[in-house]
Amino acid sequence: MAVYPAGLFPDSLSPGGIVLMSTDPARPRHYRRILFRLLAGAAAAVTMVVAGAGVAHAEADRTLTSNLTGTHNGYYFSFWKDSGNASMTLRADGRYSSSWNNSTNNWVGGKGWATGTRRTVSYSGTYNPGNNNTYLALYGWTRNPLIEYYVVENFGSYNPSSGATRLGTVTTDGGTYDILRSQRVNQPSIDGIQTFYQYWSVRQQKRSSGTITTANHFDAWARAGLNLGTNHSYQVMATEGYQSSGSSDITVREGGGGTDPTTPPPNGSNCTAAISAGEQFGDRFNLNVAVSGTSSWTVTLNLNGGQSLQNSWNAAVSGTTGSVTARPNGNGNNFGVTVMANGNWTWPTITCLAG
User: Fold this and answer.
1) Is 240 a catalytic residue?
2) Which positions are catalytic residues (predicted)?
């Protein structure tokens, strides 16, 4: 039976194991990594003893060209490909480098942790996707329920969440992320063929270095009704490519990374604003905004072309077009707005400043 990677998957998989693939060349389909998922899920479920910060002898660089999971210099790693010349080199601490070309149908690899948590993740380096189907993401799984999740920081020509249901946005770590959900029915997972949801945070302002406050994404998903499982499997900072060529050189570690190299974090960067859908009418729509991390904040909503503010509640709001500013008015940290669409139904982007 053909083996497919996670993140790039067929539309359907028959009970007999025959993959039914789309023939539409304009929308490349994502195939799922059966072998990779099973190996990585099993490895992450095993209690592993790894070297700590006081390791006397660092492991030498190690280049992988065949499928493998394990630990290297205290970090969990995973590497999978279905063909071709993709390779990943494990380097000091949380660093890895990778390269691939069009001879590889699909590959994925990265370094991180055998067990996912609400940790803050810092990563830095270079990512060269070109105009290709590839992405850079914090990636993991949970069980009870079975959930696959992505915090996508950068991608090439194809947004990996295409076709997912948009449920809102969250502003954190100097950028705004779209929150989405998709469902996989009878598809391969870390627990074999299952039906499960995928949760997505896709960064609007692409970057290749920065800090991911994972807890802010988990909390934003929960506010949108997307609850993770109680049993976390692995969590890695992954590079993936599908029928493409590119390279990456990424270092990942736990903890804050200081200034965001793409968008400097605002004063009081603990301010997080999550936007979610309210009622929708024939010519306008409501949005709900939840602010966390501070009780003294300024939220800016950047309305799109043609849109205007019709109404607001639970905040002091100024402006009606372009950039609209909201501040606390004594009614807590949750407020809402009504936006006249005027033919443009794209949600505004949102930023949050503390103080």
Assistant:
1) yes
2) 148, 240
